[in-house]
Amino acid sequence: MTERTDTPPTWDERTQLTTFLDYTRATARAKCEGISAEDARRSPLPGSPLMTVCGLISHLRWVENWWLEVVFLGAEQTGPLAGATEEDPDPEMRTAVDVPLEQLLAEYEEQAVRYRKLVAERELDAKAVRPGRGGLHVDLRWVLLHLIEETARHNGHLDILCELLDGRTGV
Fold it and tell me: For 110-152, what is each residue's pLDDT tens digit?
């Protein structure tokens, strides 16, 4: 079972934010434990064909990439989101069914290791290079809060998928 805690080792703001982001990431990983390769690619929601376990893990990975590398650092978009269009706004979810869940989880964790270092080396008040929504240059604090919210919300989606796919609840 994936180890996780929402209790920070110290109570400063940075540690609280990074602990909660790590907790929500670990929760996403824990929800994937025991999912079969077939179920990880299935979408049990007829109205949401892209809503798969693989799709959600890929989405979480690439959303972090978008906010931390593209918006905050100003890097060029790479990976599946580079091909996003109005007709295909979520290619990271569509293409994820062709990638084994174990690989998606490993890439998500490898990226998280890099991002922990990035966050540790910058001030929470540091402004993003590129504007985000509404043309605002958000700060790192906002990015972390947004990623906590985004990951927690999609953990709820993973709960629903797991219950529909194999009856599991909780985690």
Answer: 999 999 999 999 999 999 999 988 999 999 999 999 999 999 9
Burial grade of 133 (CB within 10 A; 0-12, 13-18, 19 or more): exposed
131: left (phi over 0), alpha (psi -120 to 50) or beta: beta
In the structure encoding, which two tokens stand for residue 54, read together? 């693989």
DSSP 129: S
Structure tokens at 81: 């989101």
Give the three-class secondary structure for 137. Answer: coil
Q: Give ∠ CA 110-97-162 in degrees, rounded to 5.
A: 85
Which contacts qualify for 119-123: CB closer than 8 Å, 24 or more apart? 119/14, 119/18, 119/68, 119/144, 120/14, 120/18
